[in-house]
Amino acid sequence: MTKKILLLALIALFAFDVKAQHWKWDVGLNSTNYQFKGITGNRVDFLKPTGGMHASFRYNKELVDTTNLISKFSKTAIFFGNHQKLAKIASLFRYEVGLNLNQFNATGDIQNIILNYQTNFAGITAGFGPEVKIYKGFSIAVQGNVSAQKMLTGVQTQISNSKNINYDLADNENFNPVHVMLGYTVEIHKLLFDKTSMFVQYQKGTTLHGWSEGKTSLNFAPTSISIGLKISKF
Predict the structure, then answer these.
(1) Range of the domain at 6
(2) What H or E segment, with its residue span, contains residue 174?
């Protein structure tokens, strides 16, 4: 399943028009809330976030590239040539697709037993939203995004009476499915050179698993802060 997700993402990344493209890399930290409900529907709150790694690689493109349209005589170019205000608004919006790696970790204790969760996830992500220039090379981007995350490895460590017992989470029904996550991203960009920018990113998301009577449920709600580099139109 993980190989299929990564293959589909790579096909999507390289299937776009090579004009007016932007490539983004970022790396940072996750802090993930484990939103766990027991078989009776009661929320369990003894698990607290611990730090984890976040990294992504994304392709980003304007919804309408007005510079590229000038050299064309297509119906799209003619339409936006006759509706320049609409073209200006549309040119602010961008869409992106990419790959990411995340660690969703947590720790807690119950009945004098310490529980540590260490996980590694890989996924694909897509986003859409505006990027607006604000001041002397600075711009701000806001996006809604959706992603699919699949656990690569995961371990629950129980610590009791100075003894460590590790449990593989590969077969745990709360961890092993593909997790669909919705969220948003805010980025502040600073132009460094003609086609190179750096940015600071704040991202928040959550999975959307429902609860069924007699079963447990777990949602991941990560918040990440990262720094990145954007290369444009090369």
Answers:
(1) 2-232
(2) none
In the 8-state DSSP scheme, what is residue 215?
A: S
If we measure between CA atoms, which residue out of 135, 126, 151, 146 comes closest to residue 188? 135
Tokens of 124: 């694909």
pTM, full prediction: 0.83
Q: Considering all CA atoms of the chain, what is the largest pairwise distance in Å, rounded to the nearest integer?
A: 75
CATH of residue 72: 2.40.160.20
Number of structural domains found in the chain: 1
Alpha carbon distance 8, 13 (integer Å): 9
CA distance linking residue 19 with residue 181, whole number of Å: 30
Residue 136 main-chain phi, psi, to 5 deg:
40, 65
Note the pLDDT tens digit of each residue in 59-104. Answer: 999 876 655 554 555 565 556 566 667 767 777 899 999 999 999 9
Check pLDDT > 70 for residue 10.
no
Distance separating alpha carbons of residues 18 and 14, to the nearest angstrom = 8
CA distance 78 to 210: 48
Number of CB atoms found within 10 A of residue 69's CB: 19
The two structure tokens encoding residue 159: 């610590």
Residues 189 and 230: beta-carbon distance below 8 Å: yes
Q: What percent of the chain clears pLDDT 70, i.e. is strictly above it?
A: 82
Given a contact cutoff of 8 angstroms between Cβ atoms, the answer to whether 220 and 170 are in contact is: no
